[in-house]
Amino acid sequence: MELRQLRYFVTLAEELHFGRAAAREHIVQSALSQQIQRLERELGVRLLDRTTHHVGLTPAGEAFLVEARQILDHVGRAGQAARGAVAPSPTLRVGIIDAGYDSMPQILRELQLGHPGITIHQVEAGTPEQYRQLADGRLDIGIGPASQPPPRVRSELIRLDPLGVLVPDDHRFAGLDAVSVAALSGELLLIGEETQTPELNQFVVALCRSAGFAPTIYEGTVESSRAAADLVLQRRCLYCVPSSFRTSNRPGTSWRPLTQPATHYSWSLLWHEANFSPHIATVVSTARRLADRLGWMEPVVPAVAEPR
């Protein structure tokens, strides 16, 4: 197994289109297809479902994607450590809400392709804690909803992320192309730890109330998306979560978009005006290019379908 095969697979999983993935990796489409096939043969499992008009991840592919991303991130950090031992490199301290959401990891991978000399330290923290660390200089840039930023924190919207629901594969919702918000009435819904995801919690509760019902909240809470997916897999509850989480889905779970109304969760880059630097400007410009290429600001509105 070669590192380039892992990189090709991760890029293809993000694009779900062989032509666009090949263009990102600066190789021809046939070469990309051959490397993915070799990877599947070596693993002995099928990672992708391929049809004439569609590319999707199999359950094995979804599980492999999580580990492949971590391997590539570790390799990147190893290279940074080696270069840093020879000469100091610029350091960027980046806040992420949860490693399960793919927006900031994609931005950082894109950043390091063009700027391999920047050393990145990722700090996992909820939006309130990111605001505190931006204010006291422990963070350079973060990501989260920017509905009520504190004074002097600046933001730029980079993604309108369709909200959906994570369900076990044998749940009745798994047979739908999309789930109406009203259908969540009576289902046990998990919300995150208030210190980690207060904005998402409030967003989901307000959405349910706008559909005419108060959500039934699961009594327990979690501090990570992985723990949330475990509870869903155990059929204890459902979890309303943006689409940027679905590439981290646990095998045995499915993400379905919510509709009626279709709604989107807003992700913004966050930084303190007093600490703006050329490196932060580079992150922002990288995010703009990525958002434009992946259509993050033009989300698709799902349609409700009958169970298959």
UniProtKB/TrEMBL annotation:
It holds the Pfam family LysR_substrate. Coiled coil: none annotated. Residues 1-58 form the HTH lysR-type domain. One of its GO terms (cellular component) is protein-DNA complex. It comes from the Bacteria. One of its GO terms (molecular function) is DNA binding. InterPro entries: LysR_HTH_N, LysR_subst-bd, WH-like_DNA-bd_sf, WH_DNA-bd_sf. Keywords: DNA-binding, Transcription, Transcription regulation. The keyword Transcription regulation applies. Belongs to the LysR transcriptional regulatory family. This is LysR family transcriptional regulator. It comes from Herbidospora solisilvae.
